[in-house]
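Hey, I'm writing a tutorial for new members on how sequence and structure tokens pair up, and I'd like a real worked example in the thread rather than a made-up one. If someone can provide the structure for the chain below, I'll link this post from the tutorial.
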Amino acid sequence: MQESTKENRNNPPIDFAKLSSICYQEADTDYHEHLETYLYEEDFDSVWDGYINISPEKAWSGRMIHFHQLYTRQTGEEVFPGQLYTGGMGEGQVLILNLHVFNGTIRLQVGHEVMEIDKKKKLIRICYLENSKSEGSQFIRFKSLPNGKTEVSHKTFYRSGSWFRDKIIYPYFHTKAINEFHGNVKRWISSRN
């Protein structure tokens, strides 16, 4: 994907339709693992509905993460910030996000593809696009609790080929990014009740 500083923000656009996803391979032990867990007051159906139906712009907006584009492989549909989108999350959707780190001094563009959405398995699986700094998969799993609440776990298997990036940089910024994402979904679910 793209990395920019204030000096080089005019990179040519990337044709996201031509990029492939590079997913975690269970047989390959060369991945790092990251896990965060979130608790929701609402039941599974309400939480699942929130994750599936929140607009990408609402889900992926915060101090660090910014929605840039959604591209649907099956239809060629493109959605950009400011456009109304009510189609929900779907398999084959490519999400392009801009990450602003160090107060926007460094801006990274990352791409993910939604590979699997399975309500019976209580699973959303997302893979990184080629040309990203990292490769791997993110597994968002839902667990109904006996008290009627819902636990959501976000487990990521990733690698970049750089020890420093994988051990120092990635865990910190990935935690910030997914906390913004899950926080946005949580607020959206709460606002609907």
